[in-house]
Amino acid sequence: MALLEVHDIHAGYGKMEILHGVTLKVEPGQIVSIIGPNGAGKSTVFKTIFGLLPVQQGRVLFAGEEVTNRSPEVLLRRGMTFVPQGRNVFPLMTVEENLLLGAYIRKRSPELLAEVERVYETFPILREKRKDRAGDLSGGQQQMLEMGRSLLLQPRLILLDEPTLGLAPLVFKEIFRIIEGLRKRGQTILMVEQNAAKALEISDYAYVLELGKNRYEGSGEAIRNDGRVKRLYLGR
Amino acid sequence: MTDVLQLFVAGVSIGAIYAMAAIGFVLLWQTSNTINFAQGEFVVLPAFLMVLFWTVFRLPFAAALLATLVVSTLLLGLLVKAVLVERLLKMGVLPLVIATIGLSMLIRYSLQQFWTPLALPFPALFSRAPIRVGEVIFTREELMNVLFAALVIGALQLAIRRTKLGWAMQAVAQNRNLAAVLGINVSRLVGLTFMLNAALTAVAAILVAPVYLVKYDIGIGIGLKAFYAAIIGGFNQIRGALLGGLLVGLVETYSAAYISNQFRDAFALIMLIGVLLLKPEGLWGIKEEWM
Question: What is the three-state SS of A83-100?
Answer without folding.
Answer: ECCCCCCCCCCEHHHHHH
